Amino acid sequence: MMKYVLFDLDGTITDPKTGITKSVQYALKKFGIEVTDLDSLCPFIGPPLYKSFEEFYGFSHEQAMQAVDEYRVYYNDTGIFECTVYEGIPQLLKALHENGIKVMLATSKPEEYAVRLLKHFDIYEYFDVTAGSTMSGSRVEKEDIIEYAMKQAAKLEGIEKFDVSQSYMVGDRKFDYIGASKFEMPCILVGYGYGELEELEACKPYAIKMTVKDLSEFLISKIGRE
Fold this sequence. Notes:
The protein has 226 residues and is α/β, with parallel strands linked by helices. The chain has two domains: 151 residues, Rossmann fold; 65 residues, DNA polymerase, domain 1. Helix content is 44%, strand content 15%. It is built from nine helices and eight strands. Helix 1 crosses helix 3 and helix 4 runs parallel beside helix 9.
């Protein structure tokens, strides 16, 4: 029976394109790199930021961490709210919550930012657990965030161990699948986010849902089923 659903945030619950790409643009400019095509910065949506600065611009680890700090200068007050919630997501979260499903957030975004966003869009009340990365960078890998979320859920329910067989991870990138697979947790990848279909299919996830409507119908159908 489905008991838990873990959601990624960027590209799964929210469309963060404007805020994230503008924040990356701001950070790169501090290093003398001018980027005018914001679409070219979309690959930054999903993975840990420091890794993207290293991979896409050849930054050293020290430079990448400095770039993350610069990114946050813009993102903290402006970029964070330059996003929208995908149509149909609030209704899905509400339906899951009201039917007794434990709704959990597992995002690579710093937890502080994630909570602010959920509250800003009036959907925080639907989440039983919110798990994100730390500002210090001590918890940024998706598998670590998922593990943290599971521990929080177990603590909340007063149980010794989280049952992954009763859960689904929902995300839009291969990183969500890789993190979930570490715990043999079924992963649903969505095609309306920022992962290319080729990337999603290569993961061979439990399911791929191309629209919020398809995702909603799938999850709602699992409520109360053995």
